[in-house]
Amino acid sequence: MAFTILHTRLADRGAALPADCLRVANGRITAIGGPEIAQPGDTLVDGSGTTLLPGLIDAHIHLAPGCTQLAATYGVTMQLDLFSMPEVIHQETPRSSFFTSSIGATAPGGHPTIAFPPIPYVTGPDDAKRFVADRVAEGADHLKLIYDDGSGAGLNLPTLDPRTVQALTDEAHTHGLTVVAHVSTAAAAVTVAECGVDVLAHVPSDLMSPEDIEAVADVAVIATLSVLADGFNGPSGHLPLLDEPELMARMPARWQDLLDQQSRRWMPPVPPDSTAARANTLALHRAGVRVLAGTDAPNPGLVFGASLHRELVRLVGAGLTPAEAVVAATSAPAEVFGLADRGRLTVGARADLLLVDGNPLADITATQRIRHIWVGGELVRPEDYAGSEQELAAMRFLGETTDRILAAVKEMFPQPRPT
């Protein structure tokens, strides 16, 4: 179907284009200009009072059945999966797009193995060549590795050593793969940057020094501020996503119920402090580091698609401008991960589009006021997901994952037997 969107603000790379109309045919953007670009037979979309964005990109998720369908209903048309099992990857029928690392590289018993069935581990540098080759054979688009000993959370976990991180990074680069490293502390971020990784998954949760910032200046960072900020109950007594009316209006009932259940799970008396993470995000951004928007969905409190809009609010709260936050969810991840036809409003780009009321370049909450979404030029119908088999499969999958984690935790911390 060919259509032309008329009289809208076109937002590309965080700035408004001089043109105000955009035409789509055969799933691609074919023209940008004035009303004259419309062709006979085009469907005309009145964009008065709106802004047209490239489809949003969530740079950090873990796949669940149907997650591409759910994300698309919120205008998130691309997701970057950073650790999933091949059987989950191959059963997903994409409504929007995703790229994957497949299984991440971690030490035996290291993070996050309690959430997954048995996986291949990396025991040292000699395993790097085989591990990367196996991920490439599974169809991996990038490599994920874990460098986290748990100290940031007061735990003691096995983790890869720096020589192994270096070997994995070097081997992945020989295959042309971008390397994403999970870290939680400033010291770990510096170490993996010295090993040549390309992206940090998570901004460190302890305050980075100016020397730390300088040491990672050539590495992009996926901030994932919402993991702490939205994963625990807010002042209202429940998870913050439940307090967002525009986002909840699109939320299927089963996901609303899941958020309500998660609001009633055990939580520490005081939520984790994300002050240092916000300060690090701003300091890295000011140092020229590419900050990318990512959620780490489906961790508790986080929902595919919906939570990326919350992450944008968190980035602005950390000190980025609304326009810079939009870049973090569009052109920046596309450029860092080499997605040549995504994240931009340019002729020839794939027509993944988000039309919203208002101006998100000035008010980031405008991304939540969704009017229309197109994936590959096809209009997204949110009602097609709610109650679908994909939604039911997601609930089953998340229930099984939760049961697996709880069983592992009980084994690690057995309850005392009654006497």
From TrEMBL:
All copies of domain Amidohydrolase-related, residue ranges: 51-380
Pfam families named among the record's database cross-references: Amidohydro_1
SUPFAM superfamilies listed in its UniProt record: Composite domain of metallo-dependent hydrolases (SSF51338), Metallo-dependent hydrolases (SSF51556)
Record bears the keyword RNA-binding: no
UniProt keyword Hydrolase present: yes
PANTHER family, per the entry: ALPHA-D-RIBOSE 1-METHYLPHOSPHONATE 5-TRIPHOSPHATE DIPHOSPHATASE (PTHR43135)
UniProt name for this protein: Amidohydrolase
Gene source species: Kribbella speibonae
